[in-house]
């Protein structure tokens, strides 16, 4: 055996010391954790629950640090748990506690950030008079977001009756928000500080812990105001964004009430706070919860370590539908988030309106770019045109200057000129590129970017326009072939009845779901590109055109904007069918969704290729059609509990979550998830030598006597057989079951998409499917 040298021995001892030091340090770092404890115990009051939670917390915190025994959040309305500052070791100890379901890091969640409703009504092919006749003002939509701007005309309560008597919520005051800011439209407003509310331990055993909040429900970001008005904003005539998108602004359910739960700031939302907001919203009496936020697709947690999934499960138990944005990490597959089967997950699409900013070159060529700008340049005012790489700052790589990197442009070479940049590096956003050009004293910016061209960027008063690669090549060719190239960028004009529409937004997150491929996600698609809705008054320099007052409205894009469209549509359906469960409303929206565009052709993605059901879910929502779906597929709480069984959670955990004595009837089997009574079908693996049989149960919500006949739309090589292929109903509410057999003897490998349709001559009930042939 060779003995180590003295130098090596010292190095070895040093490494051991560092390792021990780092380990000890990691065990001393305090971070926010959520401790989830399952369903609410009906036999204990909230004060007793909080006291018990403090006792549990004190059991893992050293006696000399008892000042740390406090709850940053307390969940005690419809489910139990709390959040607290803990070391990694303390969190691990709590995870083994007999009353604890899961312990997880309190991660920050991301914000997923008019004519859209008119467009949806037009696409439905039905007359919209039914909307006003059926609308009820008893539906309450809870919005969990960045707050609300109560002075917006979108929250005017004219014509609304008294607040529903079942409402138990509050209108919390702040330094800039009064109780009188709430009304019969905005009936409730809560706020939470982003580090979470503090529940301090009682100074004596008889004292009840008090919750102290800071801040205000007022929106300082604009996101929450925009989503709220999209879901249920009142009708506002002559609305526009500085003259663009002029028309009537309204929410999907203008007669519904809004309750705001301010759990987010510009930087995002603490998961523990979002969970608290869901707990409060359910207890307050909301019917629908709209959440335009979620985890990053890169760091998805399992269903019991995701605060939105946890809260949404309990909402479903209480009959509250939770609608969530699917995320903006598309167009890559496996990027969809908020994909639990008890969540209605939303993808984003465009509408039939385009915002065009024309570029006129010195040679007379006219190019149609995409942008929202209020340029003061005119067609007759030409300016020198340069490529970013040709005006690079000293010692700057050409690739950086061509991408408008910060500090990459030479101010002296750029001043007074219109700069052309490309977007070959996605790490530099359009906003940054615009600020770089503006900072370099450029007269304007033309961006060549194929991917984002369908989502216009708002550059305020700074002249900006974005072109496709083909149009961009024309500009670069012109620059290289002319001694003194010039151009101008004209202010934006909007064009209605743009075709094709809808188109799946490039940024919209795609399926299949990363946690399980046996549930088809996203569920449905709704407008999320260039949506005009209420916002806060602009405060950024250059955001308000010269001579204009700050606008009451803004144009935003994202699945954040698509989510409240579906929440509003769900409220509209619920107003007509108040006894329908959340899953019945979801089914009605999904099985009546539209799968063709305004050219009468299949929906496409932003690249022009046909969209599949991992891109758009069941298709584009059609709220009017969803009023009369004919049949619905009701997914019960027991279905969700079976899902947890199949997914692999133990009986003991499932009983704590559900608050029942439910027992799994089968061993864990991901393949069985496909049989959950869901309004779509996903088969994660179909061996070409085997068959998979899927069962579904339909409930008749149409005429009493109806006969539905099945038809199948399946890709070549995939055999799909429905048995029985005829369903006969003799009363409303009657259920009927059937089986679908899938085999893939001749199908190519990979995902294949199709649908099963049931029709009685008046209704078409479409169940879409995704089958992965292996």
Automatic annotation (TrEMBL):
A Pfam family the protein falls into: Peptidase_S8
Composition skew (Polar residues), residue ranges: 198-215
Segments of this protein annotated with the region Disordered: 198-229
Record's signal peptide: 1-24
Domain Inhibitor I9 intervals: 32-112
Active site positions: 145 (charge relay system), 223 (charge relay system), 560 (charge relay system)
Domain Peptidase S8/S53 stretches: 137-601
Gene3D superfamilies registered for this protein in UniProt: 2.60.40.2310, 3.50.30.30, Peptidase S8 propeptide/proteinase inhibitor I9, Peptidase S8/S53 domain
Keyword RNA-binding on entry: no
SUPFAM superfamilies, A to Z: Subtilisin-like (SSF52743)
Biological process (GO), any one: proteolysis
Molecular function terms, GO-annotated: serine-type endopeptidase activity
Domain Subtilisin-like protease fibronectin type-III: 675-771
InterPro entries from the UniProt entry: Peptidase_S8/S53_dom (IPR000209), Peptidase_S8/S53_dom_sf (IPR036852), Peptidase_S8_Ser-AS (IPR023828), Peptidase_S8_subtilisin-rel (IPR015500), Peptidases_S8_3 (IPR034197), S8pro/Inhibitor_I9 (IPR010259), S8pro/Inhibitor_I9_sf (IPR037045), SBT (IPR045051)
Keywords: Hydrolase, Protease, Serine protease, Signal
Protein family: Belongs to the peptidase S8 family.
Protein name: CO(2)-response secreted protease-like
The organism of origin for this protein: Ananas comosus (Pineapple)
Lineage: Eukaryota, Viridiplantae, Streptophyta, Embryophyta, Tracheophyta
């Amino acid at each position: 055996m060779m003995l180590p040298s003295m130098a090596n021995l010292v190095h070895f001892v040093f490494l051991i010391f560092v390792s021990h030091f780092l380990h000890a340090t990691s065990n001393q770092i305090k971070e926010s954790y959520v401790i989830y404890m399952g369903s609410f115990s009906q036999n204990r009051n909230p004060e007793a629950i909080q006291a018990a939670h403090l006792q549990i917390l004190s059991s893992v915190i050293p006696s000399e640090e008892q000042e740390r025994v406090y709850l940053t959040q307390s969940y005690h309305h419809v489910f139990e748990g709390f959040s607290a500052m803990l070391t990694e070791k303390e969190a691990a100890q709590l995870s083994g506690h007999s009353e604890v379901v899961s312990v997880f890091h309190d991660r920050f969640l991301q914000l997923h950030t008019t004519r859209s409703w008119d467009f949806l009504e037009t696409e439905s092919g039905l007359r919209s008079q039914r909307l006003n006749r059926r609308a009820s003002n008893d539906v309450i939509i809870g919005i969990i977001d960045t707050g609300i701007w109560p002075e917006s005309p979108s929250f005017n309560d004219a014509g609304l009756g008294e607040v529903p008597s079942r409402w138990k919520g509050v209108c919390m005051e702040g330094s800039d928000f009064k109780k009188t800011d709430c009304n019969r439209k905005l009936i409730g407003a809560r706020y939470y500080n982003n580090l979470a509310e503090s529940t301090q331990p009682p100074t004596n055993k008889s004292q009840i812990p008090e919750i102290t909040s800071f801040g205000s429900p007022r929106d300082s970001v604009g996101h929450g105001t925009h989503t709220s008005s999209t879901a249920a904003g009142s009708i506002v005539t002559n609305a526009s964004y500085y003259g663009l998108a002029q028309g009537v602004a309204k929410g999907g359910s203008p007669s519904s009430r809004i309750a705001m739960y301010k759990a987010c700031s510009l930087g995002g939302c603490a998961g523990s706070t979002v969970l608290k907001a869901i707990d409060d919203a359910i207890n307050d009496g909301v019917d629908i919860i709209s959440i335009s936020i979620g985890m990053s697709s890169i760091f998805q947690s399992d269903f019991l370590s995701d605060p939105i999934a946890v809260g949404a499960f309990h909402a479903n138990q209480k009959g509250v539908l939770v609608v969530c944005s699917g995320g903006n990490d598309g167009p890559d597959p496996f990027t969809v988030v908020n994909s639990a089967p008890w969540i209605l997950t939303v993808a984003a699409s465009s509408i039939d309106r385009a915002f065009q900013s024309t570029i006129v070159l010195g040679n007379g060529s006219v190019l149609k770019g995409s942008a929202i700008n209020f340029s003061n340049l005119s067609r007759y005012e030409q300016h020198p045109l340069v490529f970013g790489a040709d005006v690079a700052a000293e010692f700057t790589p050409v690739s950086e200057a061509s991408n408008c990197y910060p500090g990459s442009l030479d101010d002296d070479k750029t001043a007074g000129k219109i700069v052309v940049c490309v977007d070959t590096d996605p790490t530099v956003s359009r906003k940054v590129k615009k600020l770089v050009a503006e900072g370099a004293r450029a007269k304007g910016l033309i961006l060549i970017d194929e991917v984002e061209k369908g989502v216009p960027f708002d550059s305020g008063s700074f002249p900006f326009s974005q072109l496709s690669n083909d149009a961009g090549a024309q500009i670069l060719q012109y620059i290289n072939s002319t001694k003194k190239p010039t151009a101008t960028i004209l202010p934006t004009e909007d064009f209605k009845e743009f075709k094709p529409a809808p188109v799946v937004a490039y940024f919209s997150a795609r399926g299949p779901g990363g946690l399980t491929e046996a549930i088809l996600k996203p569920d449905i698609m709704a407008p999320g590109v260039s949506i005009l809705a209420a916002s806060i008054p602009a405060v950024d320099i250059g955001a308000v055109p010269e001579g204009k007052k700050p606008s009451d409205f803004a144009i935003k894009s994202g699945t954040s904007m698509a989510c409240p469209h579906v929440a509003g549509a769900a409220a509209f359906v619920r107003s007509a069918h108040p006894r329908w469960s959340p899953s019945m409303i979801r089914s009605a929206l999904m099985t009546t969704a539209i799968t063709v565009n305004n050219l009468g052709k299949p929906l496409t993605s932003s690249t022009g290729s046909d969209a599949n059901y991992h891109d758009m879910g069941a298709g584009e929502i059609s709220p009017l059609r969803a009023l009369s779906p004919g049949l619905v597929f009701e997914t019960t709480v027991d279905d969700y509990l079976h899902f947890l069984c199949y997914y692999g959670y133990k009986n003991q955990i499932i009983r704590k979550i559900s608050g029942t004595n439910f027992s799994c009837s089968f061993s864990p089997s991901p393949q069985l998830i496909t049989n959950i009574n869901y309004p779509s079908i996903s088969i994660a693996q179909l061996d070409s030598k085997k068959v998979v049989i899927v069962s579904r149960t339909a409930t008749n919500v149409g005429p009493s006597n109806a006969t539905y006949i099945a038809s199948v739309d399946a890709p070549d090589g995939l055999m799909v057989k429905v048995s029985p292929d005829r369903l006969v109903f003799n009363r409303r509410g009657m259920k009927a079951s059937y089986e679908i057999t899938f085999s893939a003897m001749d199908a190519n490998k990979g995902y294949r998409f199709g649908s099963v349709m049931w029709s009685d001559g008046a209704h078409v009930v479409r169940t879409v499917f995704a089958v992965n042939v292996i």
